[in-house]
Amino acid sequence: DLTRSILEWHMETARALPWRGEADPYRVYVSEIMLQQTRTQVAARYYAPFLAAFPTVEALAAAPEDEVYKRWEGLGYYARARNLMAAARMVARDMGGRFPDTREGLLKLPGAGEYVSAAVASIAFGRRELALDGNGVRVLSRIRGEERDITVPAVRRKLAAWGETLLPPEGAGDFNQALMGMG
Hints:
This protein is mostly helical. The protein has helices spanning 2-13, 25-35, 40-53, 57-62, 65-72, 78-94, 103-106, 114-125, 134-144, 153-166, 172-182. It is built from 11 helices and no strands.
């Protein structure tokens, strides 16, 4: 019931975002990297122009660094842009232009931590992975009535384990986006 309620809430209230409904792993990956430590409204302004300049992983892999940095101006945290370029080069050169389709495979890409890997695996590939960032942890802690400090690793692990039980058999990407939206 809780899972269904979260998904229904998301279907009724989800914001229109340029990456919403996107299933191409490159585009999902770009959005997730842009959203790291950046407000959603800011990332939304940069997403389409960035993809217009670099429409494929091969285009980004071949792009001069200064051109990528120019398109990244205003998003800050340039290590994300460096990691995005390194990941694009790895995918284009070593993986035939195809992103890994599992969380474990995605974790091997520069800049892809647990959250980004699970988000891309669930959204782009339909994998049943829980993508739990700080916002999602706060949402789950409030629903669960968790009173302990959510920054304590044992508490986070407990919330993550519970969150995994809430994942629907199909549509984990929608569930993850619902948690992000609630957060």
